[in-house]
Write a structure and sequence with these properties.
Number of domains: 1
Radius of gyration: 17 Å
Number of strands: 8
CATH class: Alpha Beta
CATH architecture: 3-Layer(aba) Sandwich
Distance between the termini: 29 Å
Strand order of the largest sheet: 1-2-4-3-5-6-7-8
Shape: globular
Largest sheet: 8 strands, mixed
Length: 266
């Protein structure tokens, strides 16, 4: 997989798939670019997908200390520059959606459209407490036990009833993950989530944006997405009932179609 050296000397890995207008894909906390697989399989029919491993995970470097969504946005912008991309769509899940907000703020002319999934502009005390809890919890769990816990947070009850086998497989895969995220990388990403704050700057973003949320998201509750939609001048809000934080998985085909069509329209 190719990579770039960033301006602060961090190696960022990415994968290219498909042909067409560029599409930057930014994953959420603790996840590498491979988690986009079921979405990239659709997107690559229409776009040149640039799947990025954020710093702290996957095949990218994993420096110690706290990270920020602003710095991770710069990482993505530098990947785009290395590839000669001056106009692109971007989609981000959770922390990835926070990174997309920062990309739109740092380089307004870069983005044709933005898809912001289960994200936030600024965490409230509940959200901060969730991420602060995650740091010691993960440090004391086996990978498969951590996966079980995070599945409880991100998937709504209907998915557990209907896709239980997939959840079991996810835990089995976590147990044999060949490149597990180190705790310091996870904690650095948690700090990026906690400190992310675009709330007072969203009004300056003119990028056409699709804000996506599951109505039953207990991790980043719907009011965060309501706030994003209300603050972003050129946004649409897509809410799926009976879905949680992993709405993009829980209603995979509908999500892929809605997000694809939104990006193609811009």
């Amino acid at each position: 997989m190719p990579s770039i050296q960033t301006s602060d000397d961090i190696r960022i890995h990415y994968e290219l798939r498909g042909e067409g207008p560029p599409l930057l894909l930014l994953m959420g906390l603790g996840a590498d670019h491979t988690v986009w697989e079921e979405h990239a399989a659709e997107y690559e029919k229409h776009f040149q997908c640039v799947l990025i491993d954020n710093r702290g995970v996957g095949q990218s470097d994993k420096p110690g200390g706290s990270y920020s969504t602003a710095r991770m946005a710069t990482d993505a912008i530098e990947v785009a520059a290395e590839l000669g991309i001056d106009s692109a769509h971007a989609a981000g899940i959770s922390m990835g959606g926070a990174i997309v907000q920062e990309i739109a703020l740092q380089k307004p002319d870069l983005l044709r459209s933005a898809v912001i999934i289960a994200s936030w502009a600024k965490l409230d005390p509940y959200g901060v407490a969730v991420f602060e809890h995650f740091k010691p919890a993960r440090a004391h769990m086996r990978n498969e036990d951590w996966m079980r816990m995070i599945q409880l947070w991100i998937f709504a009850a209907p998915f557990w009833r209907e896709k239980g086998a997939a959840l079991v497989q996810g835990r089995m895969d976590a147990a044999v993950q060949p490149n597990p995220q180190p705790n310091h990388g996870f904690e650095g990403q948690c700090d990026a989530c906690i400190t992310h704050d675009t709330l007072d700057r969203l009004g300056s973003i003119q990028t056409p944006s699709l804000v996506v949320v599951g109505e039953d998201d207990i991790f980043t509750p719907k009011h965060y997405s309501d706030t994003l939609h209300e603050a972003l001048p050129n946004s649409e809000l897509a809410v799926w009932p009976n879905a949680g934080h992993a709405v993009h998985w829980e209603v995979l085909e509908e999500f892929n179609a809605r997000s694809r069509d939104f990006m193609l329209a811009h």
